[in-house]
From TrEMBL:
PANTHER family: F26K24.10 PROTEIN-RELATED, OS08G0107100 PROTEIN-RELATED
Keywords annotated in UniProt: Membrane, Transmembrane, Transmembrane helix
Species this chain originates from: Sesamum angolense
TM helices/strands, residue ranges: 26-47, 67-89, 110-135, 155-174, 209-228, 248-272
UniProt protein name: Uncharacterized protein
Record keyword Transmembrane present: yes
Length: 311
């Protein structure tokens, strides 16, 4: 099937359509799983360093609070990924999606998502370890060839920047290749290495769109991080007032919205990647028994066809 890659705007527009069509369900899921953790993001440093902020008395915060925070973030992330991906995928086809069904999807996908996350972290950890070893070998090799690179020299700084750039490039490449893995785990019920390999196959021909989405989300998160740091700095100076609380709530709300759109857009991108590989035709034909209408895509981004159930 000959196709043209959709644009980032196409993905975002389709994502917005699905969220509007199931707004109450997306709102309920985000308030249940994402918004509380966004608020907790503010409370966490206040509890971790109480003497710097509110003089709260908490026993052993250096150990207990980070563990609790990490658990809540992980639990929330897996639950939101499972439920929002499930809702977006079925919403893409215009199917009715019940709130209880979205919650049930968590029971099915939670452990596979966790297992896949552990596999990804293991691979990344090994890659970073190997990279550090190679970096040390390269550094010592340059010294053997007579290059003078003291730790405070410009040559050493250039060397570190180049090596860091290579590592960042590798990590970004893997993020692009594995960007669809969570959606694959939820929709196709696979886990471990399989969704990573599957994602790498599906993003072929769509890497530019995937990279654009990663850059967009990264830029937005970067701006939010600057805002977050500014608010924490004000809290550290004791500048906590009703305006600080209002900004905290606004920040949490906007961060929740970005998270919802990011997860939903990834699922939409997953569907378009399947379309670009000619897989949707067979899936929809099998599901509907051949009873579907064929409509040409009207935005010029896909020279394929869009299938919808005849009313």
């Amino acid at each position: 099937m000959s196709t043209h890659s959709p644009t980032l705007w196409t993905i975002l527009s389709e994502t917005s359509r699905i969220i509007r069509a199931h707004f109450r369900q997306f709102l309920a899921l985000s308030l249940l799983f994402i918004f509380p953790v966004s608020i907790l993001t503010f409370i966490y440093p206040l509890l971790l360093h109480p003497t710097s902020f509110l003089d709260l008395q908490i026993a052993n915060p250096q150990l207990l609070i980070p563990l609790i925070y990490a658990f809540l973030v992980l639990f929330s992330s897996l639950c939101s990924t499972a439920s929002l991906t499930y809702t977006t995928f079925h919403g893409f086809y215009g199917r009715p999606v019940k709130f209880l069904s979205s919650l049930k999807s968590i029971l099915v996908s939670f452990l596979p998502l966790l297992a896949t996350l552990l596999v990804v972290q293991l691979i990344l950890g090994l890659l970073i370890l190997v990279f550090v070893i190679l970096m040390l070998l390269a550094y010592n090799g340059l010294l053997l060839f007579g290059f003078e690179m003291d730790y405070d020299s410009q040559y050493f700084l250039v060397f570190v920047i180049l090596m860091s750039a290579l590592l960042v490039g590798l990590l970004v490449y893997l993020q692009v290749e594995w960007s669809l893995s969570n959606a694959i785990v939820v929709v196709e019920s696979t886990w471990g290495f399989a969704p990573l390999k599957r994602s790498s196959y599906l993003v072929k021909g769509m890497r530019r769109v995937v990279f654009s989405m990663i850059v967009l989300v990264g830029a937005v998160v970067g701006l939010f991080s600057m805002w977050y740091s500014s608010l924490l700095a004000n809290a550290g100076r004791g500048m906590i007032s009703w305006w600080f609380v209002a900004q905290m709530v606004i920040y949490a709300g906007l961060l929740t919205m970005v998270s919802v759109y990011s997860m939903a857009a990834t699922t939409v991108l997953f569907v378009y990647c399947k379309m670009s590989h000619g897989e949707l035709v067979f899936e929809i034909d099998e599901e509907l028994g051949g009873e579907y209408a064929r409509l040409p895509a009207d935005d010029g981004m896909v020279s394929s066809v869009v299938y919808v159930v005849q009313q």
